[in-house]
Amino acid sequence: MKTIEELSKIASQVRRDIVRMVNAAGCGHPGGSMSSTDILVTLFFNVMKQDPASWKRSAEGQDAFILSAGHLAPVYYSVLARAGYFPKEDLGSLRRFGSKLQGHPSVGLPGVFQPSGSLGQGVAAAAGIALGKKLSGDGNFVYVLCGDGESEEGEIWESATFAAHHGLDNLVAMTDYNHQQIDGSIEDVAGLSSLADRWLAFGWDVIEAEGHDFESIQNAFALAKRQDGKPTMILFNTEMGHGVDFMAGTHEWHGKAPNAEQTAQALAQLEETLGDY
Ligand SMILES: Cc1ncc(C[n+]2csc(CCOP(=O)(O)OP(=O)(O)O)c2C)c(N)n1
Q1: Which of 148, 171, 172, 217 could form a disulfide with 130 if both were Cys (CB 3.0 to 4.6 A apart)?
Q2: How far is the CA of 4 from the centre of ligand 1 (A)?
Q3: For atom 25 of ligand 1, which residue has the closest CA?
Q4: Centroid of chain to Cα 79
Q5: Residues 6+ apart with CB under 8 A from 209
Q6: Separation of 26 CA from ligand 1 center, angstroms?
Q7: Minimal-distance CA residue to ligand 1 atom 3
Q8: Ligand 1 pocket test: which of 155, 175, 182 has the largest number of ligand atoms within 8 Å of its C-beta?
Q9: What average pLDDT does the structure give for the chain?
Q10: 70 alpha carbon to ligand 1 midpoint, in Å?
């Protein structure tokens, strides 16, 4: 188990990775990657039962994670590399021709169970794996991360019905609730009213937590594993572009690469803690 100070250091390094990867690629999605960094660092380093050395694509006998919001690939790749799934030197190949680190996750990269990028599909895939675990008596958990803009997709709500119907209390979904999406704020594009009310109405347990407070994140995961016959959605309150002042709180950094000067400014605001890739 990492201490909160250690998690915070890893998260700072992951945000540095994101900025550098997207700058080097000249395109990509830094805003949501940086809002979901603290959640994924906590999940991979302190919550999930997975061993990078013996990882296999079959979810049997281990916890599984699916990134439903596949455009958040930069944070996913950085966390996987820093957790030991592949060399962190590979991070520099984001979006390069022939690289396994494509703009959206594809299978073939250690740690990735399910390709994603077409929004809305991850909860369905996760629910299928969770049902499989129930049927085979495998007591491990399935985690899936969605975006709040992504939650406008209809398939999410079909999967929500399925998961509640089958009592999949080994399924823990998370929303990166940063209130921004590609074209503006959620409220301006297609207001979701209360996401908490929606998930509750679909028969899920709902936990609300602070997505940049490691204690709150850890408590939420601990509560989510109580297994009371219902799947759980954790709504993590977050900030788009968290960690860099000019990227924070605006949809403008949903899918834009920082130039050299902006990259230098961003890195200066993020503490170097574990060494560059
Ligand atoms: C099915 C589908 N429709 C549209 C898109 C294009 N798209 C990519 S990201 C995005 C917005 C997602 O918003 P959100 O989930 O809030 O992510 P964030 O902006 O926080 O990164 C859209 C519309 C897509 N990838 N897949």
Answers
A1: 171
A2: 31
A3: 118
A4: 10
A5: 216, 217, 219, 220, 234, 235, 236, 237
A6: 19
A7: 119
A8: 182
A9: 96
A10: 9
Which tens digits make up the pLDDT trace of 10-22?
999 999 999 999 9
Ligand 1 lined by 182 (C-beta under 6 Å): yes
Report the distance separating Cα 98 and Cα 206, nearest Å. 41
Indicate the top mutation candidate among 29, 104, 119, 183 to test ligand 1's pocket, ranked by most ligand atoms within 8 A of CB: 119
**Residue 103 Cβ contacting ligand 1 at under 6 Å:** no
Residues forming beta bridges with residue 140, ordered by sequence position:
none
Round to whole Å and give the CA distance between 142 and 63.
6
How many Å apart are CA 125 and CA 144, to the nearest integer? Answer: 9
pLDDT, tens digit (0-9, with 9 covering 90-100), for 239-271: 999 999 999 999 999 999 999 999 999 999 998
Residue 125 dihedral angles phi and psi, to the nearest 5°: -65, -45
Residue 139, SS3 per DSSP: coil
Closest CA to 204 of 179, 171, 155: 171
- pTM score of the predicted model: 0.98
Pick the atom of ligand 1 nearest to 148's CA: 16
**Cβ neighbours for 38, distance < 8 A, ≥ 6 positions apart:** 7, 11, 211, 212, 213, 214, 217, 238, 242
CB contact at 8 A, 21 and 89:
no
Ligand 1 centroid–CA 53 distance in Å is 32
